[in-house]
């Protein structure tokens, strides 16, 4: 089991324990914490978070993330399993921030 701290942009934080075969999203839901999600298989990107500290592995390829997103620290909580104690920035606005568009 590893400890994961979820950090929202308003400065609030929640700590959860994530089991060896559990994703961040599953552990958060078990604790009654609502994180955004959609497909739950790494394809839509709705559950995007940013890894601030720690290491994660994926249960399957993160199809919603491009290489540049992974380099920038973005992760998908629906398929991310932390392998060390970690800190994640979470919230609904992270997916929109990740997507660059010239029409902003």
Descriptive notes:
By secondary structure, this protein is α+β, with helices and mostly antiparallel strands. It has a single domain, classed as Roll (Ubiquitin-like (UB roll)). 17% of the residues lie in helices and 30% in strands. The protein is built from three helices and seven strands. The chain has a five-stranded mixed sheet with strand order 2-1-7-3-5. Strands 4-6 form a two-stranded antiparallel ribbon. β1 (2-7) and β2 form a beta hairpin. It is globular and about 35 Å long. The model has no long low-confidence stretch (mean pLDDT 93). Belongs to the 2Fe2S plant-type ferredoxin family. Its cofactor is [2Fe-2S] cluster.
For this structure, what is the CATH class? Alpha Beta
Report the structural category: alpha+beta
Domain count, please report it: 1
The CATH superfamily appears as: Beta-grasp domain
Spans where pLDDT lies below 50 across 5 or more residues: none
- Total count of helical runs of at least 4 residues: 3
Could you spell the SSE succession in H and E letters? EEHEEHEEEH
InterPro entries: 2Fe-2S_ferredoxin-like_sf, 2Fe-2S_ferredoxin-type, 2Fe2S_fd_BS, Beta-grasp_dom_sf
GO molecular function: 2 iron, 2 sulfur cluster binding; metal ion binding
Protein name: 2Fe-2S iron-sulfur cluster binding domain-containing protein
Domain 2Fe-2S ferredoxin-type: 2-94
């Amino acid at each position: 089991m590893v400890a994961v701290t979820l950090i929202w942009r308003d400065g609030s934080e929640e700590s959860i324990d994530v089991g060896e075969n559990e994703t961040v999203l599953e552990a958060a839901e078990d604790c009654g914490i609502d994180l955004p999600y959609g497909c739950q298989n790494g394809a839509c990107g709705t559950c995007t978070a940013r890894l601030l500290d720690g290491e994660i592995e994926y249960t399957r390829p993160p199809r919603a993330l491009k290489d540049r997103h992974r380099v920038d620290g973005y992760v998908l909580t629906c398929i991310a399993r932390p392998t060390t104690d970690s800190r994640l920035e979470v919230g609904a606005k992270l997916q929109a921030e990740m997507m660059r568009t010239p029409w902003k």
